[in-house]
From TrEMBL:
SMART domains: TPR. Pfam families: NatA_aux_su. One of its GO terms (cellular component) is NatA complex. The keyword Ribonucleoprotein does not apply. TPR repeats lie at residues 52-85. InterPro entries: NatA_aux_su (IPR021183), TPR-like_helical_dom_sf (IPR011990), TPR_rpt (IPR019734). This is N-terminal acetyltransferase A complex subunit nat1. PROSITE patterns: TPR (PS50005). Transmembrane segments: none annotated.
Length: 824
């Protein structure tokens, strides 16, 4: 405020002073008045076009708006007016590395070095610029040149110097010259304070150079420091040069280290990966008894990776079942007689817990046995949080989501200070679409002092899993406004992580943490290939597709089949009008409740304040009305879809939603590209079959939609994928015959058959019910079949027959219960 008052005082005396106007624009921009700031900055430029201050501020305003291209232009113009300005040059360099303009960054850093050659940070920054641009030799030469200018040797306490030395070694190794890297490391490594880093680099170079005896000694030294790093064991065994499949030699290595470090878990666990037969049985027996007697909760999580080998799975199951049947004596000697009974009880509980998890696992699933074992464990220890959580997981796999939610809530009440079980409880509540209850659960570990209450805290903490699950829950409820609100909030978290780089472009160079800085930049380049982003993007794109296909959802949740989704929706205009009216009323009621909350907060004396004491602003659009009322939902979907396809091309879901967007936008080449990518990932994917038909139908039945040249390109590229127009029925029948034992493929074939001709509706319903009875049908596939009947607009009696058959097979699944499902 003082800065603003000072600027206004100057402007009273000299209203057209451009530099002061620019500084005032920068101040009010930081106060959130962006439009007024830009207007004032333009006025300042009109008053003095040759002021580097005005152009610098103009660039800063554009940077705040994330318009980086215009910001760079403004910075460059400011530099023409004042080439020696260090702040402008620095801001330009930071923006160039943020945008990955490596050549521009090299030039900026070179200019900064020429201005201040005695400043070490400028030398290191130029080396980083060359390194990131791929000029490894130039980067090494820059660092060497600076080292040659030093008149006295730095002390060991000079962290910046020794980090730069190791960074130089890092560059040499990255160029592939490991011999030179090793020689350099031997020359300088003993003086570096990063002892562990030097040891790891040296061991790696020795192994890559084929000096296996020295490499083995180096990794043995590393294991002496940390015997629980599994990567060290892998490298040690590689350095030993054992013959492939030499189980005895590898086992001997692990026995040496398990004897040397008896409390270490890795040398006892790792032999289970390569041993087989009786040797595996003996090792597994020893390991399991040791872990179960200790009552280690993570035993199954540590073992389940072995289940890829069916024989090992069966041996493990046989061993643990034997522990329950027989009185297995303790392995360790000297057990106190008074504690033997407690140990036996703990061992028995651990075995029951292990078997419950074993039968929960997808590769050995038998949910009835899992429930039996966990109930037995709970009879022994009724206050175990882990036991209750495992029972909840079992019920979730049964499909009994409400019951599972109640069990995990009970587990949470057993330890209300445990953040992990509190989080799991909220997740189960969201999966049961209990959004308000989940938020209340999360509020137990938030401050609840922000304007948005617990939800505002979760936004501030960047709790991306909650935002994603909450958005997916609202999407299931067809409340697209709130769904998009949450998913956009999760998307913004990734943007924040991307922008956080700005804080480190200067900080990392100043502190000398260069190797970590390089790793961070490379991680940021792949930021959106994270599984969390895939979940967010796929859900958001699905919401926009649903909004495009069902525009009436803008008013609120409308049941499937009365909004133009089902095949008989056009004949149901009265029902549709009634549903829209009901959705509007519910939305108005929710908005009134939210307005009452805001009014109560406004009139209260304890309005939420930020850490600086200023009252925080309310969210002007808590229900996402602005997002859901978009005129171009498919265009908005591209914001999520573009990075998803760029960085996750191997994701089946990404290619599927990409096709659905492009086919609706009439971008047929891009739609075909998604199909070809999906075919390369999974040629037998059922969704691929449906989407291939949809594209073929558009091109064959309505050739005017695509130009002749475009149609020719698509025909050439997709000739092995797309069916011929006169052979659609034969093509689909061949697909159905080929996949007679797969429910998901049968559903895809029936969906295509329904699209080919409506007269097949009765046959499709009959075949869909028969597919439900297949032994391989999963509960998720059965649920998809119910959705398919809604899509076809099948009669209520057909849906009820299907539901009752599914409920008979999955009796505990809430989705097939009559009171839980709406038969339309």
């Amino acid at each position: 405020m003082l800065c603003l008052k000072a600027a206004e005082q100057v402007l009273r005396k000299n209203p057209n002073h451009a530099d002061t106007q620019a500084m005032k624009a920068l101040i009010i921009s930081n106060q959130g008045q962006q439009k007024e700031a830009f207007a004032l900055a333009k006025t300042a430029l009109n008053n003095n076009m040759k002021s580097h201050v005005c152009w610098h501020v103009y660039g800063l305003l554009y940077r705040a708006e994330k318009n980086f291209d215009e910001s760079i232009k403004a910075y460059k113009f400011a530099l023409r007016l004042d080439p020696e300005s260090a702040p402008i040059q620095r801001d330009l360099a930071h923006l160039q590395i943020q945008m990955r303009d490596f050549q521009g960054y090299i030039q900026s850093r070179r200019n900064m070095l020429q201005q201040k050659p005695g400043f070490r940070q400028n030398w290191t920054a130029l080396a980083v610029a060359h390194h990131l641009a791929g000029n490894l030799e130039d980067a090494e030469n820059v660092l060497t040149t600076y080292e040659d200018t030093l008149k006295q040797k730095p002390t060991r306490a000079d962290m910046e110097h020794w980090e730069a030395i190791l960074y130089k070694n890092y560059i040499i190794a990255e160029s592939g010259d490991y011999e030179k890297a090793l020689e350099h490391l031997d020359a300088v490594g003993k003086k570096s304070p990063d002892v562990l880093g030097v040891m790891e680099m040296r061991a790696d170079y020795l192994l890559k150079l084929g000096r296996k005896a020295d490499a083995a000694d180096a990794y043995a030294a590393l294991l002496d420091r940390n015997p629980d790093d599994s990567a060290y064991y892998d490298k040690l065994i590689s350095a030993k040069g054992f013959a492939e499949g030499d189980e005895a030699a590898m086992k001997e290595i692990y026995e040496i280290w398990s004897t040397k470090f008896p409390r270490s878990d890795v040398p006892r666990r790792r032999p289970l990966d390569f041993l087989s037969g009786d040797a595996f049985r003996d090792a597994a027996d020893s390991y399991l008894q040791r872990m179960l007697r200790k009552g280690v909760p993570s035993t199954f999580a540590n073992i389940k990776h072995l289940y890829l080998d069916r024989s090992k799975l069966e041996i493990i199951q046989e061993l643990v079942e034997r522990y329950l049947k027989e009185d297995v004596q303790p392995q360790m000697n000297g057990s106190a007689e008074s504690s033997s009974e407690d140990e036996a009880s703990r061992f028995h509980c651990s075995a029951l817990y292990f078997l419950a998890q074993h039968h929960n696992f997808h590769m050995s699933r038998d949910l009835s046995k899992a429930l039996k074992y966990i109930d037995e464990a709970l009879q022994i220890d009724q206050k175990s949080v882990d036991f209750h959580q495992t029972k909840a997981r079992t019920l979730k796999y049964f499909g009994a989501i409400p019951e599972a939610m109640e069990i995990v809530e009970k587990a949470r009440s057993l330890d209300e200070r445990d953040r992990a079980i509190n989080t799991k409880c909220a997740k189960y509540q969201l999966r049961n679409d209990q959004n308000e209850k989940a938020l209340d659960t999360m509020s137990k570990f938030t401050r609840n002092e922000t304007a948005g209450g617990p939800l505002g805290d979760l936004h501030d903490m960047q709790c991306i899993w909650y935002l994603t699950e909450d958005g997916q829950s609202y999407l299931r409820q067809r409340r697209l406004g709130l769904a998009l609100k949450r998913l956009h909030a999760a998307f913004n978290v990734f943007d924040i992580w991307q922008e956080d780089q700005f804080d480190f472009h200067n900080f990392s160079l100043r502190k000398g943490m260069i190797r970590a800085y390089i790793d961070m930049l490379r991680w940021e380049d792949r930021l959106r290939d994270h599984p969390f982003y895939t979940k967010v993007a796929v859900s958001a794109v699905s919401a926009y597709i649903l909004l495009h296909d069902s525009p009436d959802l803008v008013h609120g949740p409308i049941p499937n089949g009365v909004n133009g989704v089902g095949q008989d929706a056009q004949a149901n205009a009265a029902e549709r009008k009634k549903a829209v009216k009901k959705a509007k009323k519910e939305q108005q009621k929710l908005e009134k409740v939210e307005a009452d909350k805001k009014e109560a907060l406004r009139t209260s004396k304890s309005a939420p304040k930020a850490t600086d004491g200023e009252v925080q602003k309310d969210d002007p659009d808590p229900f996402g009305k602005a997002l859901v009322e978009t005129k171009e939902p498919l265009q908005d979907a591209m914001k999520f879809l573009t990075p998803l396809l760029d960085l996750n091309p191997e994701s089946i879901k990404a290619q599927c939603v990409g096709f659905e967007v492009y086919i609706r936008r009439r971008k047929y080449l891009l739609a075909l590209k998604c199909l070809l990518a999906l075919h390369a990932i999974d040629p037998q994917n059922p969704t691929l079959h449906v989407q291939s038909y949809n594209l073929s139908k558009i091109l064959n039945n309505d050739p005017n939609r695509a130009s002749s040249k475009l149609a020719q390109i698509i025909s050439t590229e997709g000739k092995t994928l797309l069916p011929e127009d006169n052979k659609l029925v034969e093509w689909n029948n061949n697909f159905l015959n080929h996949h007679r034992s797969s429910t998901s493929h049968i559903q895809a074939g029936l969906r295509v058959r329904a699209l080919i001709g409506k007269e097949a509706k009765a046959t499709n319903e009959k075949d869909l019910l028969e597919a439900l009875l297949l032994d391989t049908t999963s509960m998720e596939e059965a649920s998809d079949g119910l959705e398919l009947l809604n899509e076809w607009g099948s009669p209520k009696e057909v849906k009820e027959r299907y539901r009752s058959s599914a409920a008979e097979r999955w009796s505990r699944a809430s989705i097939f219960q009559a009171k839980q499902i709406e038969i339309q």
